[in-house]
Design goal:
Shape: globular
Structural class: alpha/beta
CATH topology of the largest domain: Rossmann fold
Number of strands: 14
Low-confidence stretches: 1-120
Radius of gyration: 22 Å
Distance between the termini: 24 Å
Largest sheet: 8 strands, mixed
Oligomer: single chain
CATH superfamily of the largest domain: Alpha/Beta hydrolase fold, catalytic domain
Helix content: 25-40%
Strand content: 25-35%
CATH class of the largest domain: Alpha Beta
Number of domains: 2
CATH architecture of the largest domain: 3-Layer(aba) Sandwich
Strand order of the largest sheet: 7-8-10-9-11-12-13-14
Mean pLDDT: 74
C-alpha cells in the first residue's frame, strides 16, 4: 500500500509537530525532521539524510527499515529513531543547520511503501538458560515484530555476547527481520578466560537452541556464531542434529591456529547435512582462504561461502581497501538474511 506526502516548498514544519512531538527529540527535531506521517503503528518520519552518514549505517541502530527515496532523503521508522540518531551519529552532524529547505524545494512529493515498515520496533528480552542442573547462563533475545526466522548466536572465544560486534550484528539482523538469541558459554558467564570443555560447550549450544525454540516456537531456527562459537555449534550438530535448526552460519570459521594451516578442525563438517553459510575474510589468519575453499568444495551438504575481500578474522578491513568495517558488516548481514530466507523458502 502506497502513501504519499506532499512537501510543498516552504511549508512550515510546525504543522508536522503535533503528530510527532512524542517521538522526536527536541534538539534533533529542529535539525533533521521535515515531515511526519501518522500510520496505524505509529509515525513514519521523512528526514534529510545527515551529511557524512551512510543510510546503511542507520540500519545498525535498530531502526528496522529505511528506504532511500532521493539523493538526500530517507523515510525512517519507528518512534524513537530521532533520539537514537542523536545518540549514535557523530556529534558534529548537529553543528550545521540541516532543516532540508533545499531538499523541500527540489522534492515535491515523497512516496513510500508501508510494506517496508512491517518489522516494527524490536524487543529485547533477557534470558536465563539452564545448561545443567548446576549451571545456567545468560542470554538475550532480540526480536523484531515481524521476524521471519531466528538465529541462535554464539560468541567467540575471547569476548562474550555483549561485545559491540555481537550486539551490532544482532541489531543489524533485527533490522533485516531476523530475530536472534545470543548467549554466554559458562566460562564467560563466570568471568574466566579459559573455554569450557567441548562437551559442556555442546550442551550449552543445545540448551540455547531449546530456549530459542521455547521462546519463539513458530520461527524457523538457524544456529552458529562468531569463530569459536560457530565451531562449537557445528560440532554439536555433527554429533547429533540440533532440534528445529534449519541451517548453520559461521562468522569466521576458525579452521586452524595462526600460521599453522591445516583443515583438521573441519573434518566433522562432513557429518552435517543441513545448509551452511561461511563468512570468511581473505586476510583471516585462522582460516587460509584456499583451505576453507577446499573444505567447502568437499562438503555434500548445501554450502555457501561469502568471501570478504581484505577482511581479517574480526572482519576489520584496512583503509586502503576502499571500504569500511561498517559496510562490511552490512554486506555480511544482508547475505545472512538472504541466505536464511532462501533456506526457509
Amino acid at each position: 500500500m502506497l502513501h504519499e506526502l506532499e512537501l510543498g516548498a516552504g511549508r512550515p514544519r510546525d504543522q508536522y509537530r503535533a503528530s510527532s512531538t512524542d517521538c522526536i527529540d527536541d534538539r534533533t527535531k529542529e535539525v533533521l525532521i521535515f515531515g511526519a506521517v501518522p500510520t496505524a503503528d505509529g509515525i513514519s518520519l521523512v528526514m534529510n539524510m545527515p551529511r557524512g552518514v551512510l543510510w546503511t549505517d542507520l540500519l545498525a541502530l535498530n531502526l528496522v527499515r529505511i528506504e532511500m527515496k532521493h539523493a538526500r532523503l530517507v523515510v525512517i521508522y519507528p518512534y524513537d529513531c530521532m533520539k537514537m540518531l542523536a545518540q549514535h551519529c557523530a556529534p558534529d552532524l548537529y553543528g550545521t543547520p540541516m532543516c532540508a529547505r533545499s531538499a523541500i524545494r527540489s522534492v515535491r512529493q515523497v512516496t513510500y511503501d508501508t510494506t517496508l515498515l512491517d518489522f516494527g520496533m524490536s524487543t529485547k528480552t533477557p534470558l536465563s538458560i539452564v545448561v545443567t542442573k548446576d549451571i545456567a547462563v545468560s542470554g538475550l533475545a532480540t526480536v523484531p515484530r515481524a521476524a521471519g526466522c531466528c538465529f541462535v548466536f554464539a560468541h567467540g572465544a575471547g569476548a562474550g555476547m555483549n561485545h559491540p560486534y555481537i550486539a551490532a550484528a544482532c541489531d543489524g539482523l533485527a533490522a533485516r527481520g531476523v530475530a536472534t538469541v545470543r548467549y554466554q558459554f559458562p566460562y564467560m558467564e563466570n568471568g574466566s578466560k579459559r573455554p569450557d570443555s567441548p562437551k559442556l560447550c555442546h550442551q550449552t549450544v543445545r540448551s540455547a537452541v531449546a530456549a530459542a525454540h521455547e521462546l519463539l516456537p513458530t520461527l524457523p531456527l538457524f544456529a552458529g556464531g562468531k569463530s569459536f562459537g560457530g565451531r562449537m555449534t557445528s560440532q554439536a550438530q555433527a554429533l547429533a542434529p540440533l532440534s528445529h535448526v534449519r541451517g548453520l552460519c559461521f562468522f569466521g570459521f576458525p579452521l586452524h591456529a595462526p600460521k599453522q594451516p591445516t583443515s583438521i578442525r573441519a573434518e566433522h563438517l562432513s557429518s552435517i547435512k543441513i545448509p551452511m553459510l561461511f563468512l570468511q575474510g581473505t586476510r583471516d589468519a585462522l582460516a587460509e582462504l584456499s583451505l576453507i575453499q577446499g573444505v567447502v568444495a568437499r562438503l555434500d551438504a548445501p554450502v555457501s561461502l561469502k568471501v570478504i575481500d581484505q577482511a581479517d578474522h574480526s572482519f576489520h578491513v584496512p583503509v586502503r581497501s576502499g571500504t569500511t568495517d561498517t559496510e562490511v558488516m552490512h554486506s555480511m548481514l544482508d547475505e545472512v538474511a538472504a541466505w536464511a530466507n532462501a533456506v526457509v523458502g
